[in-house]
Amino acid sequence: MSEKLFDWSGRRENDPAHRRVAEFLVMDIQHSPEWVQELAAKIDAVKSGKLSTWERIGNAFRLEISQGRATIEDLVDDSATTEILSLEELQAAVLAWHQQIN
User: Fold this and answer.
1) Own/partner long-range contacts of 77-82 (Cβ < 8 Å, ≥24 apart)
2) How far apart, in whole angstroms, are the C-alpha atoms of residue 87 and residue 79?
3) Closest by alpha carbon to 53, among 39, 42, 41, 37?
4) Of 36, 62, 90, 97, which has the fewest beta carbons less than 10 angstroms from its beta carbon?
5) pLDDT tens-digit map of 63-100
6) What is the pTM of this model?
7) Structural domain boundaries of the chain?
8) Cα gap 23→6, rounded to integer Å
């Protein structure tokens, strides 16, 4: 997997959680505008309190979002650590991915 998949405002290049988000978007969300829009809507719903949590299990990763944080677990590499980041960081990456695939 490329070290630098794509950039977004606030991305920290050496941050494992930011790398994991990029991998999740590339491998599980892929180039599907519908999946990006669904993910963005679910982030908004959790941030606003309409949903308490939401999860997506993809081909390579499991994403769980809850108030204030996103947790991404690698489903392929058992030795990989689970990464945690804020919903704001996830949202920034999702918006950048949406722009990149359009």
Assistant:
1) 81/16
2) 25
3) 42
4) 62
5) 999 998 999 999 999 999 999 999 999 999 999 999 98
6) 0.88
7) 16-101
8) 10
